[in-house]
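Need fresh eyes. Consider my entry:
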Amino acid sequence: MSYRIRLDQKDGTPGEAQLLSGMDRFLVTVQENRAKVLAGLVALLVVLAVIGGAVWYGQRQADEAFELSRQAMVLSLDRPADKPAVADENLKKAISLYRQVIEQHPRSPAAPMALYNLGNALVQANDFPGAVEAYKRYIAAYGSNKVMLGLVYQRLAFVHLLNGDREQAVKAFSAIMEVPGALNKDQAIFELGKLEESQSRPEGALARYQDLTKNYPNSPFASEAAVRIKALEVKKAPDAGATGNVPLPVPPQAGPPAK
């Protein structure tokens, strides 16, 4: 019995798909899905337009906020001493411009400094409650800026002192010591020492001044703290007369014998 070997012959002619290059296949796909591709391109253009518009609007708002802040700064500095009415009017305008920045552009880069300067301007206007509110708003909204945070606490403490509230001033100065990276901790310690002295607590004042001279020897407040330490130590010592430290009077020497 004979067997016939059957060989499968493959068609050697390449198909249409094999003749197309990658780019050709892409173009064919695009052509077949033209409606979907166009819709995608339109959507992409819309998204880009929205992003571009938002960026443009944000930059415009930032520029406007900086311009308002600049005008306010110029007015707050332009306060002639010989023209008190002009000085007061310029300060009022500066306060109004700072408020405009804060209310209309709260997310602009100029807003934090505008809020800080608003507090300073309100202090100059003797509006201490308003200044306290401004500084507290800064602490709540922009407390992540540790360097500025220490300065704001210091300003807040001084406003409390001007308002006669020593307890709140102590809290504000003490808060500076808890701020990492604050550059005014030495001054805060010095001011706390002065407050201790003003309340007739020499032991507390002495401890503050000693802390300052030990941990911040290069501080500009260290030399005055050293002077105050000596003065407090002298006051702390018992009366010299009670300890016998005062030299006794020397009796007069007898004169030459009479002739």
Remarks:
- Residues 34-77 form the longest helix (44 residues).
- The two ends are 182 Å apart (CA to CA).
